[in-house]
Design a protein that fits this description.
single chain, about 200 residues, alpha/beta, five-stranded parallel β-sheet, 11 helices, about 10% strand, globular
Length: about 200
């Protein structure tokens, strides 16, 4: 609902961009890896993940100056040092900026041209759990409405009901695997949009 309500503000940012850079640190950079391929396929634009420190320190290698570039900066807290620096650097280079964060009073929420603030997904845990899932799904849904893909829009809108029906099964599978004495090591692999999720799961 939040993305739909903000669509008049968000859609021009995406539709007018010639290329999109997704950036963040740690788990947020894994979200960037998950979203860039989805947007490239949906929008037909060059979309790529770039670590926030590279935008902040080595922008000339990654961000074309005075180009029609949209930088999507992702951070659970909205105050990650390198990500704030990257957002400000991108703005100074003439890029439009969009932040995806969980706290409305954060620097990234206040300073970006537009912000998606997922307050319901905020958490105080060391590892990102619901916040990461929410940021990934938020970005994927934004790609669907930006490309006016009615099939994907409908699919994302059915996810709450699918989760209600499937969550107990997923929990049971997880408990069974975790209690298997024969399983000593875990490896997570993924390509395309699943690469970022595999990185996060390691």
């Amino acid at each position: 609902d939040r993305i739909d309500r903000q669509s008049k503000e968000l859609l021009p940012l995406v539709s007018e961009a010639e290329n999109i850079i997704f950036t963040g640190c740690g788990s947020a950079f894994n979200v960037s890896h998950a979203l860039a391929p989805v947007f490239q396929q949906a929008m037909g634009l060059i979309c790529r993940p770039v670590h926030a420190s590279d935008i902040a320190i080595n922008s000339g290698m990654f961000v074309p100056e005075n180009s029609n570039t949209l930088v999507v900066a992702i951070s659970r807290s909205g105050s990650t040092t390198e990500s704030v620096m990257a957002l400000r650097k991108a703005a100074s280079l003439g890029c439009r900026t969009l932040s995806i964060v969980c706290f409305p009073d954060s620097p990234m929420a206040k300073e970006a041209d537009a912000s998606l603030v997922l307050e319901e997904a905020s958490e105080k845990s060391v590892t990102t759990t619901r916040s990461l899932t929410s940021m990934v799904l938020c970005g994927q849904y934004l790609s669907a409405i930006s490309s006016q893909d009615s099939k994907r829009i409908g699919m994302y809108r059915t996810l709450p009901e699918i989760f209600r029906r499937k969550s107990a099964m997923f929990e049971e599978i997880g408990e069974r695997i975790s209690q298997d004495p024969e399983t000593k090591k875990y490896a997570f692999v993924g390509s395309g949009s699943y690469y970022g999720l595999a990185r996060e799961a390691q």
